[in-house]
Amino acid sequence: MSAEIISGKILAEKIRGEIKDDIEQNGYTPCLAVVMVGNNPSSAVYVRNKGKACEEVGIKSITVLLSEEATQTEVEDKVKELVSDGGIDGILVQLPLPAHLSEQRILSLIPPEKDVDGFSEYNTGNLLLGKKCLKACTPSGIIELIRFSGTEISGKHAVVVGRSNIVGKPVAVMLLQENATVTVCHSKTSDLKEFTRSADILVVAIGKAGFVTGDMIKPGATVIDVGTNRGEDGKLKGDVDFDSAKEVAGKITPVPGGVGPMTITMLMKNTLIAYKRNRKIDEF
Is 197 helix (H, G, I), strand (E, B) or coil? Predict the structure, then answer.
């Protein structure tokens, strides 16, 4: 029997509707500024999708495009300008940046109250400490998807494959806060299959198309596929081999249409949270 599909599209529509209603009913005017340096095609598509999402829910969107040759000083000055604008509630710098730029120096200029990507050291630290903060969007979306699927997290064994700062580590912390027992696996993990087959909840975020196959999954497990790999045919493929996995898993996210829609949706939610917090409407 094939696994139940966990639709990120359906959940994203629901949450975006709630955000839109909140904005319209209360007359809020949140504003999100996105800085993009260079002309990375994937980044350009993502930025356009963010703009569409903002328009959909009623968030004002500002996109700042800088050339591939922009200097460190030029990018930093633009970010500082946006930071000083009281009408802007959320700021994000689209990654990756051109190689000659210091990502860390640029991101460090965004104050935590406007860090809607949830990448700042302050917000990351508060997440680890269990304090309220703006949380990284993709991990937040993963938790919402697991809840939406009806999967019980508390007391379950969750295995996260991947230890990146933007997905693997924060989602492991969030799962711990939901009272799961968490194992984090990575490229140096021996006998990976032994761990993945013990997972009630399996989150895969390693950037290798089809890496996790059906024989690596515990029967009935909930599988969250974070991968977005572009195949030779131009189609997006997940880190999980969907065809074999769906015959073993109990519930699974598709690629596309799973985690992807939720990442941008949680960015919209973070922008609204930042708006309320910055205006003392709601401290979270």
Answer: coil
State residue 164 phi and psi, 5-degree precision.
-70, 160
CA separation for the pair 232, 131 (Å, rounded): 43
Query: Which residues belong to the active site?
Result: 50, 94, 117
DSSP 208: -
Cα distance between residue 95 and residue 252, in whole Å: 28
Placement of tokens 């689209």 in the chain? 94
Q: What is the pLDDT of residues 247-271, one digit of tens each?
A: 999 999 999 999 999 999 999 999 9
**Do 67 and 40 contact (CB within 8 A), yes or no?**
no
What pTM does this model have?
A: 0.95
Whether residue 137 has pLDDT greater than 80: yes
Angle at CA 274, nearest 5°, toward 268 and 279?
Answer: 135
Residue type, 229: N
- Cβ atoms of 132 and 176 within 8 Å: the answer is no
- Cβ-contact 263, 118 below 8 angstroms: no
Distance of alpha carbon 274 from alpha carbon 90, whole angstroms: 7
Confidence of residue 282 (pLDDT cuts 50, 70, 90): confident
145 forms beta bridges with none
Question: Which pLDDT value is given to residue 81?
Answer: 98
List the end-to-end C-alpha distance of the chain, in Å, as a whole number.
42
- For residue 90, list its beta bridge partners: 32
Burial class for 100, CB neighbours closer than 10 Å (0-12, 13-18, 19+): exposed
Place of tokens 């996109």: 63
- Going by C-alpha positions, the residue among 142, 145, 144 that lies closest to residue 164 is 142
Measured between alpha carbons, how far is residue 214 from residues 53, 196, 225 in Å?
Answer: 34, 10, 13
Strand runs (DSSP E) across 163-255, as ranges? Answer: 181-185, 201-204, 222-225, 229-230, 236-237, 251-252
Question: 225: Cβ–Cβ under 8 A, 6 or more apart, which residues?
Answer: 204, 238, 239, 240, 242, 252, 253, 254, 255, 258, 259
